[in-house]
Amino acid sequence: MKALRSIASVVVSYLVVFCIVLLSDPVLERFFPAQYVRGRVPPAFLLWISAAVFALSSILGGWLCVRIAPAKPGPHLLALFVLGEAIGVVFTILNPGHYPLWNSLVWLAVWPVCLWIGGRRRKTAASRPQMAVSP
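RE: above sequence
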């Protein structure tokens, strides 16, 4: 059961980040309909907004990964990092010209930092002393 939970902590966390990013594009398209033209790269400000959504969802993904992990959250967070970086590098190599290279490099740089921040949020919350409530 622990092995299944270990795998789930990484896979579910990655899927949550992926779905949030995937669902953010139609939302941004609704807010900026004239900026999304088929066959054209969106303007830089929308790519930065998308990167910010990715950063926030990566923090959530890091937190979720260590939250679900049955024990030793560090290796689970590392596995999530490796999975995301590998997919990001493959995407960057297989899709040249669809988006500017700087955009992919920003996402590749943001991923580990935000995962670490999300993982730290769980660690600091768990290490805080609990206050006793008196009747």
